[in-house]
Amino acid sequence: MKARVILNFSSKGCLKEFIGFLKILAENNNLKRLLIHQAPYGFEKPSNRLLKQCLNRFIKDNVISQLKKCLSKLDEFSIGCVPELSPCLVDELLESLNPSVKILGLASLKRSSSKFTFDPTHLLRFQKLQVLHIELCQLSGKLLDVLNEIEPLKKIIIHSSKMNDNEYNDFVQDAVETFKNDVTIVIRFK
């Protein structure tokens, strides 16, 4: 079973509805693919610091806890709205994800690049990973080294709102020098 969710977190009511949906998905043993993306018009967190903190706490305590119940059985997981949900929880989500996942999407679908970070060593758990979607700003020598250790990796899809010639040349040179496997690298511009 595949579930594709396009979210609009414009109100607490929408979040509660999503939490209910995640509870249903968590009980479904046939769920193998879960793709979560933001609505095209995005998600604006409140500018007030206290409201922002409350929203982050609500997301961590409710949305993420329900989402983690679904992760252990998935073969494919994409969360194109990670930065909007909670950028600091990427490591926590990766730790909960099925180690047999084959397709992993960690790139935001919005036009600008997202600035979330995660520990690339978490990807070493995924020894069946074949396709990885990632933001250009997440690329590093450490990430490339980790990805080189994942034997079945066939494709890296890099999402970027823009890429200058130096970034492109540096990345291609690093990738060619790093990968011992036959890995296809695709660059998608948003």
Distance between the termini: 28 Å
CATH-scheme architecture? Alpha-Beta Horseshoe
**Strand share of the residues?**
15-25%
Largest sheet: 7 strands, parallel
Helix content: 25-40%
Radius of gyration: 17 Å
Mean pLDDT across all amino acids: 77
Low-pLDDT ranges: none
CATH C-level class is Alpha Beta
Can you write the helix and strand succession as a string?
Answer: EHEHEHHEEHEHE
Structural class: alpha/beta
Number of strands: 7
What is the domain tally?
1
Strand order, main sheet: write it out: 1-2-3-4-5-6-7
Shape: globular
CATH fold-level topology: Leucine-rich repeat, LRR (right-handed beta-alpha superhelix)
Number of helices: 6
State the gist of this model.
The protein is an alpha/beta fold and 190 residues long.
What do you see in this structure?
The protein has 6 helices and 7 strands, in the order βαβαβααββαβαβ. It is an alpha/beta fold. The protein has a single domain (2-189), classed as Leucine-rich repeat, LRR (right-handed beta-alpha superhelix) (Alpha-Beta Horseshoe), CATH 3.80.10. Helix 2 links the parallel strand 2 and strand 3 (76-79). Helix 1 runs parallel beside helix 2.
